[in-house]
Amino acid sequence: MNKKIAKMFKVFFAVLVSFAACLYFYWVYACGAVNSYGTGHTERIEVPYGMTIKEIAAVLKEKKLIHNETVFYLAARYPFLDKSEMNGLQDSKFNLKSGVYEVSSEMGLSEIFNLLSSGTQEYIKISIPEGFSVKKIAKKLADGKVCSEKDFIEAANSKPLLAEYNIAADSFEGYLFPDTYFFTPLMSGKQAVKFMADNFFSKIADIPSFAGISPEELNDNVILASIVEKEYRIASEAPLIASVFKNRLDKNIGLYSCATIEYILTEIEGQPHPDVITYENLQISSPYNTYKWAGLPPGAICNPGMIALKAVADTPKTNYYFFRLTDLQRGSHSFSSDFRTHIEEGQLLYTKKTSEN
């Protein structure tokens, strides 16, 4: 009986060793190039922002650039398993970077990993100015062939996507940080919105006053910052403008912001950007009309930059309740605590124009 068991064990061990050897040789094979040098083909592979390693593997397999999706995934997640050329990736996980790459079937997995981790890819560089609205951003991205306007605007109003970021608002207006971005061609609107929203939350992590506040409190700050963004012209005056608005909110006085009237005219009604706000404009019936209603408007009127966000986060204590543009060329304002002084500064109400209206 013992001899029989020993014989069975030897057979089992031999089968196990054979299986392990076959598995090892297949693994080495699967980590290598699909084609030998001079016989392969090259494919243009798009890796959009947010694409997973499994999704990349599926695309590469479909294009006949790798042998096996599972081997690609495991080698990417656990680089020490990669048995193709050693190249420095063995000590860390595969660091995927979005982009558009030229991948050859003559590349082994390590070469593909190096390429997709290098950042040497095609991209579209687009600068989003402070104060741009969702609609303006959508048009700029569409003009740059990043994504369609419709796709971007739909994503910016997506309730499930807002819930994913725990945003207490009806849209991403105010949460798309103005910055210089490197987009990949033909991203989806959702990917572009997430790219910019991720940047927003990364940036405000550096503002201590925003740490630990509720989504509703953050949204109030974002709304106010969006108004400050459209009102200030000189950076040093942004905190003072924020103080005026906060003082008025504390007293339940209307904000009387020309920027909110501009938003109604241009973003809601689709009119051209006005140079001057008229008395008739102040009578528009809209919850965004801060001349008719006290408190904050229902949502942000643009996407504020760091100057406006910090001005709202760290607002100085003042007794100012009014401000007026006094030097159109310099963009400077006068600040006052009483209405009489405010009126004496002049009657014209100017609106701030961004660099690309």
Describe the overall structure.
It is built from 14 helices and six strands. α2 packs antiparallel against α3. The protein has helices spanning 2-31, 53-62, 69-77, 109-118, 134-143, 149-156, 159-164, 189-204, 215-231, 238-250, 258-268, 279-282, 306-313, 339-344, and strands at residues 42-47, 99-104, 124-127, 180-183, 322-327, 332-336. The longest helix has 30 residues, at 2-31. It is 44% helix and 9% strand. β5 (322-327) and β6 form a beta hairpin. It is mainly alpha-helical and 357 residues long. The chain folds into three domains: 2-118, Endolytic murein transglycosylase (Dna Ligase, domain 1); 129-204, no CATH class; 223-344, no CATH class.
For the sheet with most strands, the description reads: 2 strands, antiparallel
Instruction: Report how far apart the termini are.
Output: 91 Å
Shape: elongated
Mean pLDDT: 83
Figure out the total of helices: 14
Order of strands, main sheet, comes to 1-2
Oligomer: single chain
Strand content: 5-15%
| Number of beta strands | 6
SSE succession: HEHHEHEHHHEHHHHHHEEH
Which class of secondary structure composition applies to the elements?
mainly alpha
Q: Nearest-angstrom radius of gyration?
A: 29 Å
User: What number of domains?
Assistant: 3
The helix content is: 40-55%
| Uncertain stretches of 5 or more adjacent residues | 82-92
